[in-house]
Write a structure and sequence with these properties.
Length: 69
């Protein structure tokens, strides 16, 4: 369950940064009124921690990335 949650947050974070790159709009800042807002900082922290957790998915033996299809 933690793997799926981390992967979901990482995907959402990637989409948000994609919107920033393509359109120049930071969705988190727009939704939570500025990047210095504590809620926005928590979201950024959770996405960052999720991406670090997802690194472990690559190196696990029972990972989907390591299975033959």
């Amino acid at each position: 369950m933690l793997d799926k949650l981390a992967l979901s947050l990482t995907i959402i974070g990637g989409i948000i940064w994609g919107i920033v790159g393509v359109f120049g709009i930071n969705v988190v800042e727009v939704l939570f009124n500025g990047s210095l807002n504590i809620i926005a900082r928590i979201i950024y922290t959770l996405v960052g921690l999720s991406s670090l957790w997802c690194i472990s998915l690559v190196f696990r033996e029972n990972s989907v990335a390591n299975r033959e299809l």
